[in-house]
Amino acid sequence: MPNARETDIANAIVTHLNAQSLSKTYTCKLDYLPDFEREDLKSAELTVFPSGKVITFASRVDNQYVYTFNLVIRCPVAPAKEPDISAEMYFAEEVIESLDRISMSNASFTGAESATSYDLDLLNERNEFLAAFSITYLEIK
After folding, report:
1. How many CB atoms lie within 10 A of CB 17?
2. Using CA atoms, how far apart are residues 135 and 6, in angstroms rounded to an integer?
3. pTM above the 0.85 mark?
4. If we measure between CA atoms, which residue out of 57, 134, 140 comes closest to residue 103?
5. Residue 39, CB half-sphere, CA atoms under 13 Å: how many?
6. What does 36-87 look like in DSSP terms, one character per residue?
7. CB 104 within 8 A of CB 110
8. Using 50, 70 and 90 to split pLDDT, how confident is the model at 38?
């Protein structure tokens, strides 16, 4: 049975990220129903899930497909009154930069966006760094 294009691209993103050697040890997975309420976060986790698709006219014979995925980066942080999360923020930068200009399943990376650098409440309440990015890929077919 064939996969949806979103699944093909998401699987390619996960495979690519799992092959990277970055500053933290981590796992990356595709999850259609992510659960970020787990209490025992032992190491960095990356979760990719489809978020949206826009189809527009590109030419007389082609359409432009813009696929959007959410990429959530979670890392445990040592409890402290003033936690230092510079290593986690650097890791998040590395993750996004590893995707820059890399095509996934014939779709080209077009950008990443994050509303906030990290979730302040999770850092304060659960000693957990969480950064959520919206990443987009373009395909013309």
Report:
1. 19
2. 12
3. yes
4. 140
5. 0
6. ---S---SEEEEEEEEEEEEEE-SSS-EEEEEEEEEEEEEE----SS---HH
7. no
8. low
CB atoms within 10 A of CB 3: 11
Q: Give the amino acid at 126.
A: R
What angle (nearest 5°) sits at the alpha carbon of residue 134, between those of residues 136 and 12? Answer: 55
- Tell me how far apart the terminal alpha carbons of the chain are, to the nearest angstrom: 21
Summarize pLDDT for 78-101 with one digit per residue, the tens.
999 999 999 999 999 999 999 999
Q: Report the C-alpha gap between 20 and 128 in whole angstroms.
A: 22
Cβ atoms of residues 22 and 56 within 8 Å = no
Q: How far apart are CA 8 and CA 63, in angstroms?
A: 18
Token pair for 13: 């993103």
Cβ distance 89 to 73 under 8 Å?
A: no
The residues facing 59 across adjacent strands are none
Residue type, 85: I
Tokens 């979670």 label which residue? Answer: 74
